[in-house]
């Protein structure tokens, strides 16, 4: 099971790869504070779809854990898990199998 | 080698489609609730319920690691319920919707995740002429396939940016287990409503699926073809 530093590293790596694929200059050197989706965030819905799928895939490939980020909780959350890298890391940690 | 996922491959049209694409040199991943009825070096079977989200996700991951991805998906698995609405229990409604709608959706979602990496893909969903013909006694089956047609049209738009086409095929009655319980008189009346009045054959289905899967069909999406001239 990945710890919080490993989750952060996996998310940042995924965002960097996505930024390269989608040519998103604002995310070529992402940090935990980087905004992702929503007001001021550089991702459009298609880029977000790809990022979520990439991260779910990477979590399974590297740590053999199945995490679904697009559950009912994510869709109804007041603070979107996709707002920033920090939010996304928290959402992943919350969804880790117990 | 190209790879294809086909649901409902234990018998009927699904089995014939799997055998056809194996003969054409594809790698085929199939599934059904029961064990495999196909033995071939390039065939991999998964025993699962298509509406079981975790099982479908696990199958997609196995297809990715064993085949390196997927080029096409045929959502063939389906169940029918032929009964008057007043005599149809809620359990039947739920199981038809689970297999035909939820199952089709889950496979579209999970296989699209694999196809997006190749930036190309073909999805063919199965509908039925029972929907446009408004066949009495098939309310739930036809309604479930109306939902599949709607999914097909909307997913064709959502997946277009990923260069994945999503189309549907609506066969006429074909001599399979699905229609074995239908009285002969009712079947004849149904066939009379087609422009071309005969039972469908598996080759008719294969021909239309082949058309959707052709590389040249990359500008064909969101379409529904009914066989036999039903409109």
Task: Please tell me about this protein's structure.
Chain A has helices spanning 4-22, 45-63, 72-76, 85-94. With 98 residues, chain A is mostly helical. In chain A, helix 1 crosses helix 2 and helix 1 (4-22) crosses helix 4. The longest helix of chain A is centred in the first third of the chain and has 19 residues, at 4-22. The termini of chain A are close together. In chain B, strands 3-2-1-4-5-6-7 form a seven-stranded parallel beta sheet, with helices on both faces. Chain B is of the alpha/beta class and 231 residues long. The longest helix of chain B has 29 residues, at 90-118. At the A-B interface, helix 2 of A face helix 2 of B.
Radius of gyration of chain B: 17 Å
Coarse shape of chain A? globular
Q: Report mean pLDDT of chain A, rounded to a whole number.
A: 91
* Beta-strand content of chain A: under 5%
Shape of chain B: globular
SS field, number of helical segments of chain A: 4
Rg measurement of chain A, Å: 12 Å
Number of helices of chain B: 6
Helix content of chain A: 40-55%
Distance between the termini of chain B: 37 Å
**Main sheet overview of chain B:** 7 strands, parallel
> Low-confidence parts of chain A lasting 5 or more residues at pLDDT below 50?
none
Strand ordering within the main sheet of chain B: 3-2-1-4-5-6-7
Q: In total, how many beta strands of chain B? A: 7
The helix/strand order of chain A is: HHHH
What is the tally of beta strands of chain A?
0
The average pLDDT score of chain B comes to 95
Largest interface: A-B, 7 and 8 residues
Helix coverage percent of chain B: 40-55%
Q: Beta-sheet strand percentage of chain B? A: 15-25%
Q: How would you characterize the largest beta sheet of chain A?
A: none
């Amino acid at each position: 099971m990945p710890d919080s530093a490993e989750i952060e590293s996996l998310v940042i790596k995924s965002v960097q790869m996505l930024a390269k694929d989608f040519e998103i200059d604002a995310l070529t050197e992402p940090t935990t504070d980087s905004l992702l989706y929503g007001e001021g965030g550089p991702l459009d819905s298609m880029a977000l779809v790809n990022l979520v799928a990439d991260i779910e895939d990477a979590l399974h490939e590297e740590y053999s854990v199945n995490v679904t980020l697009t559950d009912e909780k994510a869709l109804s959350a007041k603070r979107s898990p996709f707002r920033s890298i920090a939010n996304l890391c928290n959402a992943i940690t919350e969804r880790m199998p117990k | 080698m190209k790879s294809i996922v086909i649901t409902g491959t234990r018998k009927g049209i699904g089995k014939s489609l799997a055998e056809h694409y194996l003969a054409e040199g594809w790698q085929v991943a199939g599934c059904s609730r029961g064990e495999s009825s196909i033995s071939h070096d390039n065939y991999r079977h998964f025993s699962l319920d298509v509406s079981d989200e975790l099982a479908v996700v696990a199958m997609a991951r196995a297809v990715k690691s064993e085949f390196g991805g997927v080029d096409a998906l045929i959502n063939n698995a389906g169940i029918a319920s032929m009964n008057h609405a007043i005599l149809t229990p809620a359990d039947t409604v739920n199981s038809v919707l689970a297999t035909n709608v939820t199952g089709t959706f889950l496979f579209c979602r999970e296989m699209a995740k694999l196809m997006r990496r190749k930036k190309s893909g073909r999805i063919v969903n199965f509908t039925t002429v029972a929907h446009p013909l408004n066949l009495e006694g098939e309310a739930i089956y036809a309604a479930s396939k109306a939902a599949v047609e709607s999914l097909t049209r909307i997913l064709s738009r959502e997946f277009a940016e990923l260069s994945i086409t999503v189309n549907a095929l609506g066969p006429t009655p074909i001599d399979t287990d699905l229609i074995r319980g239908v009285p002969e008189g009712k079947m004849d009346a149904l066939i009379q409503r087609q422009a071309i009045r005969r039972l469908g054959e598996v080759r008719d289905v294969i021909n239309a699926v082949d058309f959707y899967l052709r590389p040249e069909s990359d500008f064909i999406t969101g379409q529904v073809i009914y066989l036999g001239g039903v409109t």
